[in-house]
Structures are given as structure tokens and as C-alpha cells.
Design goal:
Layout: H1 6-14, E1 18-25, E2 28-30, E3 35-41, E4 59-65, E5 76-85, E6 88-89, E7 93-94, E8 98-106, E9 111-118, H2 141-153, H3 157-162, H4 170-178, H5 191-201, E10 204-208, E11 214-218, E12 238-239, E13 242-243
Antiparallel strand pairs: 1-2, 1-5, 3-4, 4-9, 5-6, 5-7, 5-8, 8-9, 10-11, 12-13
């Protein structure tokens, strides 16, 4: 979960603000004036009810002016946003890292439509039959996660093992190291299914964080704020000025 500063909270709580955005695609920045629309979606749960054992890829859709330069398939997409209320603005916050799956240009309108997924989509492949952890008879969950992350990001296991916080959130590393669950050989399973199994062991769900790292979110990690009643847009619902808490 991304930390935001007091200015962001103050603007958000006021309910009187606009959102501003820009996006970095393949290392090139496109300001809001070039964007018609941009939407990101991330889900912890497959269904509407709370559950654990999920590893769902995030998605992004962008409609923008067709740039003159070529944007290749698989290129990195990093969206950023901030809140503005009058002259008061929050810092910019990254909202994930995605990779282009499809892009379609419309010559008549001059628009480019882009659709992409985050790195969890790259786990939709069979778990490699020959990997480092299986040289040992009983690999632990943290070792297996590092191997999967290496395949997701297209780097070596030694790269991930040497600098795991470049690819995995620190609190997730701490959780995986705290309990040494042993993983059976995942024959005929995808890497995402293996992540789902590990998430179940730890009572949580895997998701890609706003900085593009693998994150294990447990039920106990959910902030107290999660249990306040809000609208679909995240606005507070109050009764006589008092917020409504769904969990005591």
C-alpha cells in the first residue's frame, strides 16, 4: 500500500479536487494534454467477497494522441497522478508499472488506444521444469518466489537474489522469511498458480505494488481505513458528520 503525505490526505478529505496525470511510455513522458483517458485496474480478490490465494494481474487502458515515434509491444508504461484543489497540489505518485499488450492507431481520429498488463501476467506460463530451487529436495516459499520473479522480469535468479528489494517489496520479503513453508514440485502448474498456492499459505494475495514490485497483501495488513463505508469513488459516507465503521 502506497504511503501518501498530509497534503494529499487533506485535499482528498475535502472532496473538492481534480486529478492530474501523465504517463511514461518506453522512457518517454506524455503529459495530460496528450491523454484523452487513462484507467488502471488492480484487484486483490477474484470475486466481490474477501478471499485469499489470489494473484491477479493489473490492467491499464490509455487513449492518447498518436505520437510520431514508434511505441513497441511490451514497452513499459508508468502512470503518475496527483490531486489539485485550487493552488494546493499533492506530490506526484506512481500508480504501477505495466507492459503494452496491444496498441491500435486510428488514422481518422489520430488516436492511439493502448491496453496493457502488469508483470503478474508474465507468470501465466508453466513453471520451468529445471530451476535452481529443485536442486534441493525441499525448497522454501521465498526461494520459489524469487525464481518466479526472475522469470517475470526476465533476469537471472542471482540478480534477484542479490538485490531482492529491486523486485519484491521489503515487507513481503519479511513475511516470506518469517515462515519457512516448504513447496512441493509444481508439475503442470503455471507460475501464477504457484504464487496463488503460496499466497494461501500466508493468508493473503499477491499483487504488483504501485512501484512495480511483487507484494503479498495479507488480511491483517489491511488498514483500519478499509472498514469505513465509502462511495464507489472513495468518498467518505457520514451520518451526522461521523464516519460509519463496518468493523468494531
Amino acid at each position: 500500500m502506497q504511503e501518501v503525505n498530509s497534503t494529499y490526505r487533506e485535499i482528498f478529505d475535502s472532496g473538492d479536487y481534480i486529478s492530474e496525470a501523465y504517463v511514461v511510455i518506453n522512457g518517454v513522458t506524455y503529459q495530460q494534454s496528450k491523454l484523452y483517458s487513462m484507467c488502471t485496474r488492480k484487484k486483490l480478490f477474484k470475486e466481490k467477497k474477501p478471499m485469499f490465494g489470489n494473484a491477479i494481474a493489473g490492467e491499464i487502458e490509455i487513449s492518447m494522441e498518436d505520437p510520431e515515434r514508434e511505441i513497441p509491444r511490451g514497452a513499459s508504461i508508468k502512470p503518475y497522478f496527483r490531486l489539485r484543489s485550487g493552488n494546493k497540489v499533492s506530490p506526484w505518485y506512481q500508480k504501477g508499472e505495466f507492459f503494452i499488450n496491444t496498441r491500435e492507431a486510428d488514422d481518422e481520429t489520430g488516436r492511439l488506444e493502448i491496453y496493457g498488463y502488469d508483470a503478474l501476467r508474465k507468470a501465466e506460463r508453466d513453471y520451468p521444469s529445471s530451476t535452481l530451487s529443485w536442486t534441493a529436495s525441499s525448497p522454501n516459499a521465498y526461494t520459489v518466489v524469487k525464481e518466479i520473479v526472475a522469470h517475470m522480469f526476465g533476469v537471472s535468479y542471482s540478480t534477484v537474489n542479490g538485490r531482492p528489494t529491486n523486485y519484491i517489496e521489503q515487507d513481503t520479503i519479511t513475511k516470506l522469511q518469517a515462515a519457512t513453508h516448504i513447496i512441493g514440485f509444481p508439475a503442470q502448474y503455471t507460475m501464477r498458480e504457484v504464487l496463488e498456492s503460496i499466497a494461501t499459505m500466508y493468508g493473503g494475495n499477491f499483487i504488483m505494488s504501485d512501484t512495480g514490485k511483487l507484494s503479498l497483501v495479507g488480511f491483517v495488513d489491511m488498514l483500519e481505513e478499509t472498514f469505513y463505508l465509502i462511495t464507489e469513488n472513495g468518498r467518505r459516507i457520514t451520518f451526522g458528520g461521523t464516519r460509519i465503521l463496518l468493523r468494531a
